[in-house]
Design goal:
Keywords: Membrane, Signal, Transmembrane, Transmembrane helix. It comes from Paractinoplanes ovalisporus. Pfam families: DUF4352. It is a single chain. The chain has 4 helices and 8 strands; from the N terminus they run H-H-H-E-E-E-E-E-H-E-E-E. By secondary structure, it is an alpha+beta fold. It has 2 domains: 69 residues; 125 residues, Immunoglobulin-like (Sandwich), CATH 2.60.40.1240. The strands form 2 sheets. It has a 4-stranded antiparallel β-sheet with strand order 1-2-3-6, with helices on one face. It has a 4-stranded antiparallel β-sheet with strand order 5-4-7-8, with no helix packed on it. Strand 2 and strand 3 form a beta hairpin.
């Protein structure tokens, strides 16, 4: 009598009999899925064998960038050939003179001349033991009639945008190259550059070509 209620409980595991069949029915799907993955992987591998290496475009881009990078010019150790003069510890060589320009600066933000620009290319060496500055405001240019012209200081910033610049202090023994610009009336011919070590110095004349 006491064991009768437990008999249905013993028969309960029999109801789980179909489950192995369900698990077995999933096996073909798993095998089929595995085959699909293998086939897809083999196809991807075959496709990648025909692809170009990824590193090639990077190398080409690097080569192109290197080709457009301007070479770094070595620092000068002696003044270049030109018309030379010295005042104090500043030695100046005039290497080129270009006149008749109506504007200077970048194309998108040009600076127009009131008359025309004369650009005097120079190399300046500091022969002293202390840093020196070639003061743009102290420099002058003379024409055939002896008339004096001041440096166009705003234009000097535009035409000396390199680093290091002629407008920076020059270390002892160093040479800086740059341009000294003058805004003169049209038709004026400059004949000489008056180099001053300071606004109050006598100055020294350098003939222009």
């Amino acid at each position: 009598m006491t064991n009768t209620p437990l008999r249905p409980a013993r028969s309960a595991p029999a109801a789980r009999g179909p489950e192995p069949a369900k698990r077995r029915s999933k096996a073909p799907w798993l095998v089929g899925g595995a085959l699909v993955v293998v086939v897809a992987g083999a196809g991807a591998y075959a496709a990648t064998r025909h692809e170009k290496p990824v590193a090639a475009p990077v190398a080409e881009t690097t080569t192109a960038a290197a080709a457009t990078t301007p070479p770094v010019e070595p620092a000068l150790t002696v003044l270049p050939v030109g018309r030379k003069a010295s005042e104090g510890t500043l030695s100046v060589a005039v290497t080129k003179t270009e006149c008749g320009l109506t504007e200077v600066g970048p194309p998108d933000l040009p600076l127009a001349a009131e008359g025309e620009f004369c650009l005097v290319s120079v190399a300046v060496q500091n022969t002293g033991k202390e840093p020196r500055l070639l003061d743009p405001g102290a420099q002058r240019a003379l024409d055939r009639q002896g008339r004096s012209y001041r440096v166009a200081e705003q234009a000097a910033v535009f035409v000396n945008d390199q680093d290091p610049s002629l407008l920076d202090e020059i270390p002892p023994g160093a040479i800086r190259q740059g341009v000294v610009p003058f805004d003169v009336p049209k038709g004026v011919t400059l004949t000489s550059l008056m180099v001053h070590k300071s606004p109050y110095s006598t100055g020294v004349r350098v003939q222009l070509s």
